[in-house]
Amino acid sequence: MSSDLTGPVTAAARRVRTAAALPAACHPAPAAAVTVFAAALAASAGRGFGGTLLTAAAVAAGQLSIGWCNDRVDLARDIAAGRRDKPLARGDLAPRTVAAAAGAALLLCVPLSLACGAAAGAAHLAGVAAGWAYDLGVKRTVLSWLPYAVAFGLLPAFVTLALPGGPWPPWWVMAAAALLGCGAHAANVLPDIEADRAAGVRGLPQRIGRRASAALAAGCLAAATAVLVLGPPGPPGAGGVLVLVAAAGAAAAAPAAPGRWPFLATLAIAAADVVVLLARGGPAG
Q1: Which candidate among 15, 174, 243, 268 keeps its CA 20 to 30 Å from the CA of 185?
Q2: Which domains does the chain have, with CATH numbers?
């Protein structure tokens, strides 16, 4: 290859590698799950196609910013732990690239959120701020669950405050969403608890250990199920009672289950909670 072409080809290859690695550095599975959840809430609340798309775009931008911020902040720890699953830790991305991506996503999140209305936008941006607070240090404290509770609890409000009249969601919707957030936090760290403890990360799950964290995750999600089934006025119905009994059983069995079963059990309860919420009429109740 001619030497005068080597530079452009190498630069192009670097750009392609960066474009391929950036999505993997944003914690794509949780980001996608939260975005889809928000879109489902918006659709069930009657936001229409445009409103649902705008809600999803705002939430996606916020989640991207939080995920990229997390990997940039954790770079030294991930390198020390030999995390080959992290593109930044294995050298596929420059730290400044991930930091710039996080900042750009955060800047994009602001107008997208406020386009849903001032109150709705403020609610969503408060949740995104909670996510950044988690990344920047709260996750190393006993209050590591709090940003999740705040961010998830405000997500239904982001949807309903954008509706005509700007109503807040019923209390049971926000309470269940906050419990979902706490359960998601405990479940999310289950696979990495021992590595986190070795690296000095001392959030609540790391302090109480794997078995207690599995119980916490499943218990919070089962409590969310109870709130969703029993919180709305009127009888819960046979289907709701069945889901509640199943969630309680899974929560009781999760702490003693081997391997990845506690994590999978909490995912199953979370999925059931989402179905119950949507069946109950979404965030507007």
Answers
A1: 243
A2: 1-166 (1.10.357.140), 169-285 (1.20.120)
The C-alpha atoms of residue 230 and residue 224 are separated, in whole angstroms, by 10
Phi/psi of residue 17, each to 5°? -65, -40
DSSP readout, 158-171? HHHTTSTT-PPPPH
Inter-residue contact 210 to 259 (CB < 8 Å): no
Tell me the two tokens of residue 223.
């409590």
Alpha carbons 113 and 54: distance in angstroms, whole number: 8
User: What's the pLDDT tens digit per position in 84-138?
Assistant: 888 888 888 999 999 999 999 999 999 999 999 999 999 999 999 999 999 999 9
Structure tokens at 148: 């999740």
Torsions phi, psi for 45 (to 5 deg): -85, -5
